[in-house]
Amino acid sequence: MTKQLSIIIVVLSLIVTSAIITLMTFGLNENYKKINNNLSINNKNDIQLKLPKSNLLLGSSTIDDNSSAIITYLKNDNLRYEVEEFYESDDPELGGGKRRTRDTKRDKKCSIDSQCGRDYFSDNFCYNGDVYREFNDYICSKTKCNKNTTKEIVEYCETGCSAGSCISHNVQCNEDSDCGEDKFIGDKFCKDNDVYQNYKVFSCLAPNTQQSSCTSQVDPILVERCENNEICNDGKCMTDKVIPSIEIISPLNNDVIESSEIFVNFKTENWEVGRKGEKHVHFHIDNVPGLSYSDHLMFYNKDKIVELNLEEGETSYATWINSNTIRINNVPNGMHRIRAHLATSSHLPPGNPEADKEIIVKVDVKEIKCNSNNDCDDFNMYTEDICNNPGTSDSYCSYEEIVCIKNEDCGENISENYCVDNDVYQKYRKFECKYLGTKNSYCNEILEDKKIKECMENVCYNGDCLPLTCKLDIDCGVNDFEGEKFCMDGDIYQNYREFMCVNPESLNSLCESDINPKLVDDCPNGCQNGKCITEICDDNKDNDGDGKIDKLKELREDILLEQTIASFKGNQGPWEHVSFGDAKAPTLAITGLKPGEKILVTSVLGTYSHRIHDGRDQLPSSCRKDTYGTFTTDNRNTIKRYPLTIDTFRTGNSFDQGILIPNKASNLYLHILESGSFNYFDNSGNRDSRVPCEVELSIYRVSQCSDGIDNDNDGKIDAKDPGCVNRFDDDEREHDDDCNNV
After folding, report:
1. Using an 8 Å Cβ cutoff, are 194 and 153 in contact?
2. Is the pLDDT of residue 228 over 50?
3. For the chain, percent helix, then strand, then coil, each to nearest 5?
4. How do residues 340-373 score in pLDDT, each as one tens digit?
5. Distance in angstroms (rounded) separating the CA atoms of residues 475 and 501
6. Are 286 and 357 members of one domain?
7. Domain presence at residue 685
8. What number of CA atoms fall less than 13 Å from residue 690's CA on the CB side?
């Protein structure tokens, strides 16, 4: 009976315990829901829990009805549980945490393992300080699918395991607490008419790795909310009515300020001037270049800075001096309004008139020429710059001349030699600057005399020992010819140097020399290249046997030798038999011709007829047309034929241009030539009644180098002959170079 009773008691105890656990679980879940409604997340590591104004027990701490707070809980990523049972029901990082649900694959009908699913490994997790993973194996057993799970070790860790990896030796932090303790910092302050305090939270980034690092964040946390009838002041909720105000202590209204910098000293009541983002003071001023009266000069105490409007950084328009003084810079002369008003963290005034003050001042800066000698610097080292009455409106600059600032300004040190008793002395003069660089500076000259050389057998002259230069001309040098011989005035000369002693046997003796051309040889035939010419240059002979004759002689105008007039008719002269029939022979005009001379036809007069029929002139023609001159030998052999004037057959030359008498020609015949036949002919009919052709002829001598004759029998004629200098050269023989300068 006792045993049965014991069993019953144990069973009842188990039932009661189960009920209690169920009720506790239900209560905790209900509390979690209530707390969860008050959660807000600041960042990935912080959780804010807003607590109502009711008693709440937190460990041994209690928050009563008269306070409110936001308690920040930090998520602990490094919290690890290493009991085996956890993996079946808790943290997923450790391989567990999966809610127990029915595995549908287990109820699946199967015949082979592959019908139940693909086997797989779980993510790595920590177990007993090492890295593990689970192998999930699906099998088909008795037509039903089942899964077997087996833990496998991945890596043994020497320093422990965290987040499925071994903890490295070189890590900065493993958890947030390694970086610092989260806590409130600084004093309480007012924000949005509530009491706040900054809370600093530390975080470990990439924990348990070599890339781990610590960071922190500071955020304002609401500590106390002020009621509607309360006002937050100096970090406290106050029930008494508090009126914030500001007073401008100096300058006073309508003050005259003799400076371009205005120091505004002020006092606030019931208003703590803080940093940026907190309560502060705004200043305004008009009539300042670059500023308008609506611009805000924002004065912050804790930052010790004045900013313009919302521009970050110090402004040049004003400067923070101390907690109650601002300096407004570069204010021009004139009247200026200065306004100071309190400003909230959102830059709005409190709204009460005591929080806003305005004054009017006049800036009247007297011009000050100088405050110190440096202000008078004229950048001239040789003046002493002086500021008189410094720092006053009566100040002015004056300048005193500085004679010298260094010894070199007084002059260059000079030494000068001179003679005393046949010895060399030196007069040394040097300069020094006394009181250098001041208006009292002056130059001092120092003179010294000392003997530096004894001349002995020499003579002291002009501060130097000099030997006697010369006593005789021969002491200066030997007279002699110098240089090459040259031609002058047709004779041979050479430069001759003569030496002479000037002021002999005296200290002033010196040697000089003159060079003058001196006749060496008289040349009867002239001089060439410093030699006498042996060639006689006008005797038409090669006197020096060099194969060259005389000097160049030019015949620039032809010489008239003879003039004659010749007339001819068709019946003159003997008959000749030619291949095209009988024709009248030409008329002989000139005999005894000399080859190389030139014949010129100056006029042709008269007419002739090619044919007369029945006593009538059938083909009349001018004697200038188809009339020719033919050169022949004494045996009447034809050599050359040219037209008298009109070149019908275009031979290229005509007698009216001048024809050179060809070689071997002795006679000239004048005649008429039938066109196209080159035959002489006679006009039948009344020949005696015609006027004969009359031709005026002139004979000229021309230069040898233009006469068409090989005068020197060297096989070369005129321009092709090397002896011809030009076409006017009257001798085909080469000219002697020695005669060129004669």
Report:
1. no
2. yes
3. 10, 40, 50
4. 999 998 898 887 889 999 999 999 988 888 999 9
5. 7
6. yes
7. yes
8. 32
C-alpha 159/C-alpha 626 separation (Å) is 141
Q: Residue 544 falls within a domain, yes or no?
A: no
**Could you tell me how many residues make up the chain?**
742
Number of separate domains in the chain = 6
Per the domain annotation, does 52 fall within a domain? yes
Helix (H, G, I), strand (E, B) or coil at 695: strand
Q: Which pair of tokens denotes residue 678?
A: 């080159």
Q: Is the pLDDT of residue 503 over 90?
A: no
Listed residue (213, 212, 121, 214) closest to 167, CA to CA: 212
Residue 7 lies inside a defined structural domain of this protein? no
> What single letter denotes the amino acid at residue 700?
Y
Short-list 308, 301, 244, CA closest to 276: 301
Residues 451 and 515 in one domain: no
What predicted TM-score, i.e. pTM, was given to this entire model? 0.31
- Transcribe 249-315 into DSSP letters: EESPTT-EE-SSSEEEEEEEES----STTS-EEEEEESS-TT--TT--EEEETTTTEEEETT-SS--
**Is 190:197 a contact under the CB 8 Å cutoff?**
no
Q: Which residue has the tokens 């004056």?
A: 398
456 and 590 both lie in a single domain: no
310 and 193 share one domain = no
Are residues 265 and 191 part of one domain?
Answer: no
DSSP state of 410: G
In angstroms, rounded to a whole number, what is the distance separating the alpha carbons of residues 15 and 288? 89
- Which residue range is the domain that position 289 belongs to? 243-363
Examine the domain organization and report whether 495 and 358 are in the same domain.
Answer: no
| DSSP-derived secondary structure letter, 524 | T
- Structure-block tokens of residue 641: 């034929």
- Sequence-distant (6+) residues with CB within 8 A of 333 are 363, 364, 365
pLDDT per position as a tens digit, 33-54: 333 333 333 333 333 333 333 3
Q: Is 404 buried (19+), middle (13-18) or exposed (0-12) by CB count in 10 A? A: buried
Q: How far apart are CA 541 and CA 736, in angstroms?
A: 10
